[in-house]
Amino acid sequence: MKGNVKENIISILESNKGLFISGEKLADDLNVSRAAVWKAVKSLKNEGYNINSLQNKGYSLSKETDIISSNIIKNNMLKYKDKFNFLIYNTVKSTNIIARELASKGAESGTVVIAEEQTEGYGRNGKSFFSPYGTGIYMSIILNLKKEKKIFKSSFITTAAAMAVSKSIEEITNKNTHIKWINDVFINNKKVCGILTEGAFSFEDRKLDYAVIGIGINVNFPKKGFPKEINDTADSINSNDSNSDIRNILIARILENLWDYYFNNISFYDEYKKRSFLIGKRVSINIDNKENIINVLDIDENFALVAEFEDGRIDKLTSGSINYKIS
Ligand code: BTN
């Protein structure tokens, strides 16, 4: 078995969640001493894994364990396991801040920063992003565009991420999702995921050096509910106080789908458009701090919004914040 003792132990316990495995068996299977097993279990417990130990039975990972773990994510990945390198934290200000810092120092594509909680999570237009402990996914994925020598528009990256989230939620939960241009994911008209892509341009070649895709998903219902400012517009994927362990599975699927779109050039335009609920709607959009009423005619192949303004002018918009109102 490859990997370190801790990774291997959690992987075995995770595959046998709720069952006891003796220290002797773990030691034999991993070809290490029982003391090494004991030490690794102790360290895993300190990291927050809920492992029960019984003298004559061994160790068992609690069925209720719902912790984000790189091993559990990898165990759930059918492909691209070796493409990702995870940095998982309990509490951070913002995973995007950490990822940007790493990216500016040349971190590889596929470096993924995840936290159980963010104290200063942020979204577009300077808004804060509600990131309570243990119920959501707060994840930032680094794309090192300079090293990959790929030239991509930020709209492609950000829509690929929205599509990856939308598709993964549907694959895992059987719930229908919609995308609000450009990258908010909705279930039943309520927002369950927001995405903020940040990048750095290089002055010399005027191309994106790196991009950080920050994905925030409300997975399980927050223990204290949503703050009143977003209570009417936000929801979680699991709308009751459920604690099922879907976060690791969801992360695994999102990364696989994103890799397909980004590196394997699998087209996602048609599926994106099918899920977009703004086409044919009359909405208000804020462009350069000015509210405009538009009819959304289409989303073109570059993911620009084809908009008809009130004076009859038709324009293709690549940015702007939509105030979604059905009329
Ligand atoms: C939005 O809805 O405007 C975008 C929200 C993006 C939130 C994610 S959570 C992970 C990453 N870290 C942050 O501080 N923001 C993004």
Task: Characterise this structure.
Residues 71-266 form the BPL/LPL catalytic domain. GO terms for molecular function: ligase activity. This protein has helices spanning 5-15, 23-30, 34-46, 70-75, 95-104, 145-148, 154-173, 247-262, 269-275; strands spanning 51-54, 58-61, 85-92, 111-118, 136-143, 178-180, 184-187, 190-201, 208-218, 282-287, 290-299, 305-309, 314-317, 321-323. It is of the alpha+beta class and 327 residues long. A seven-stranded mixed β-sheet has the order 3-4-5-9-8-7-6, sandwiched between helices. A five-stranded antiparallel β-sheet has the order 13-12-11-10-14, with no helix packed on it. The longest helix is centred in the middle third of the chain and has 20 residues, at 154-173. The radius of gyration is 22 Å and the shape is elongated. Bound molecules: biotin (BTN). Biotin (BTN) binds at residues 94-96, 118, 121-124, 127, 129, 138-140, 194-196, 214-216.
